[in-house]
Structure of Coactosin-like protein:
Amino acid sequence: MGSEECQTLHMEGNNYKVLQEHINKLTENQSSIITKFDVLTKNVDDLRKILAQLSEKIVSLEDVAMDRRKLKSEIKILKTRIDELYAIIKEGKEDDSLPSDDVQDVESCHSGFSCSSKVTMTTGLDRDTIRSAYEDVRSDASPTEWAVFKFDGARIVCSARGSDFTEFRTQFSDDDRAFGYLRLQMGDEMSKRKKFMFVTWVGPNVSVINRAKMSTDKAIIKDIISNFAVELQLESQAEIDIDQFKDALNRAGGANYGTGVRDL
């Protein structure tokens, strides 16, 4: 066999190898697309079920008198669940950050709505410690100027209290979801006054689903922590800055008792 023929066979062998690699890659991509499509289909089905539940609930209200405040709360919870499912669909995959112990099969979820799919457990509150910390920060007789609330499994608990702002900054890591309540002294020597702030922390490493759940979890804790002048959503350590906090309080003026949100 001549050298030219050997060279030709060698080139054909290399081309075949490259072609085979491309085929293998395409096969892997096809499998990945099929898997993601199956996940999307499942979550779209879940979304349709929840929308149907919402429709049925509204229809049933035509025959049953219900307190408007309760109705508003229940619809808000359903909307949040829909947002969570939408986040799954947008991400194109299941959320793997939650351990299996944090999900459960339930016949009903959130205020009596029928819900056959697996959902994250309803967040609970350690009400006594949260209320105690809230009142401690608000008390003029207490040196405590801040409290931080974090997730312990499926419950929100008071994780720390203190008076040093530097220590407050250390309470929030990139993997955390948390809430903070602060008392800051504003004004000058002629007019000193205390103002209060509520912050929501979502670290950059928090998953899409846990980010989506924060709107519901925040509404739960604000049943207790209700009096503040400014609410801030924080997502980076650079935003935990006392000068920026005071600037936001100065711009806010009077207390809004939780009716507004300012993003830094």
In short: The first helix runs from residue 3 to 60.
